[in-house]
Specification:
A four-stranded antiparallel β-sheet has the order 1-2-4-3. It has one domain: NADH Oxidase, CATH 3.40.109. Helices cover about 40% and strands about 15% of the residues. It is α+β, with helices and mostly antiparallel strands. α2 packs antiparallel against α4.
């Protein structure tokens, strides 16, 4: 089977990570895969913020936990030590779709490199908060941005989950 199709079929969301931060070169390759995602009119407007600083990672986890309504101390990132946050330019009508494609590319790239990943939501709510808007300003990022998701990445702790059977009745041909 084609290597890319095999990667697509094998990738799973990981919910238990080892604490070791992946190599910076692997993180760069994952981000680069996201940069090659298709985008509306080829504008390439989605951006990625790579967080390997554990203090900021833990703050994101805590805020994400509050937004999600979990008890304090729960880690919605499942212990993943690196978080790649994808944001979409609010002025682009295809921004959410473009950012979603970036997320998909990055999760596939992580799997291809032997790393685990999972898409974690609530980036939209986080980046509506003043402290995260200030973070963008501190990074020199201008404009209006909407959080699309967190691509939590790291080394898988344990066995990856097995794929669920694919549901029937989801494909229709018109010939």
């Amino acid at each position: 089977m084609n290597e890319i199709i095999n990667t697509i079929k094998e990738r799973r969301s990981i919910r238990k990570f080892k604490p070791d931060i992946p190599a910076k070169e692997d993180i760069r390759q994952i981000i680069e895969a996201g940069l090659y995602a298709a985008s509306g009119k080829g504008k390439q407007s989605a951006i990625t913020i790579a967080v390997t600083n554990q203090e900021l990672r833990n703050r994101l986890s805590s805020d994400n936990c509050k937004i999600g309504g979990w008890e304090a101390g729960y880690d919605p990132f499942y212990g993943a030590p690196a978080i790649l946050i994808v944001l979409a330019d609010k002025s682009r009508p295809t921004g959410i779709y473009d950012g979603s494609l970036v997320m998909g590319n990055m999760m596939l790239a992580a799997h291809a490199l032997g790393l685990g990943s999972i898409w974690i939501h609530r980036a939209k709510e986080e980046f509506e908060m003043p402290e995260y808007q200030q973070l963008l300003k501190d990074l020199g990022i201008q404009g209006q941005w909407e959080g699309i998701g967190h691509c939590a990445i790291g080394y898988v702790d344990g066995e990856p989950p097995r794929p669920a059977p694919r549901k029937d009745g989801r494909v229709y041909f018109i010939e």
